[in-house]
Write a structure and sequence with these properties.
It is a single chain. The chain is an all-alpha fold. The protein contains five helices and no strands. It has helices spanning 4-33, 37-63, 83-110, 114-144, 148-158. The longest helix has 31 residues, at 114-144. 28% of the residues are buried. It binds hydroxy diiron-OXO moiety (OFO).
Length: 162
């Protein structure tokens, strides 16, 4: 059993993961609409991953005999000015998620909630990869600058994500 405060924090994170899924799906739609199928495919997979993260929280809350509360998911924005802006916002969002998971981990520690601490460890590790992935693409975009060929090459590379 987990505390009421922990139940609220985990449900809030479940909502944040669903919002992440929505946000990346919106980015996928934007990329598709401007003809970058590789970027769109990368974002669709990212969106699916976020849904899987949300389901990990969903399943854990039920496993510890607590209550899942599904709140309204905010609408993500629909348009961006550039590829660069999208990946700047992606990195910023992932950092926000990392902070949010760290806060829950601190709460778990303060409550001697070892089971939740253990559950959150997977997310703490995952966030290293999530931030690195966004940073890596952002670095490439900065390097490419306005080079059309470079963007097309990156589109092909991102389209290979499995
Ligand atoms: Fe993008 O990460 Fe979920 O947690």
């Amino acid at each position: 059993m987990i505390s009421k405060k922990m139940e609220e924090a985990l449900n809030k994170q479940l909502n944040a993961e669903l919002f992440s899924s929505y946000l990346y799906l919106s980015m996928a739609a934007h990329f598709e609409s401007i003809g970058f199928k590789g970027f769109a495919s990368w974002m669709k997979l990212q969106s699916q991953e976020e849904y899987e993260h949300a389901m990990k929280f969903f399943n854990y809350i039920l496993e510890v005999q607590s209550e899942v509360t599904l709140e309204k998911i905010d609408a993500p924005k629909k348009k961006w000015d550039s590829h660069l802006q999208i990946f700047e916002e992606t990195l910023e969002h992932e950092k926000f998620i990392t902070d949010s998971i760290k806060k829950i981990a601190l709460l778990a520690k303060g409550e001697d909630d070892f089971a939740t601490s253990n559950f959150l460890q997977w997310f703490i590790n995952e966030q290293i990869e999530e931030e690195n992935n966004a940073q890596d693409i952002l670095d490439k975009l900065k390097f490419i600058g306005d080079g059309k060929q470079g963007i097309l090459f990156l589109d092909r590379e991102l389209g290979n994500r499995k």
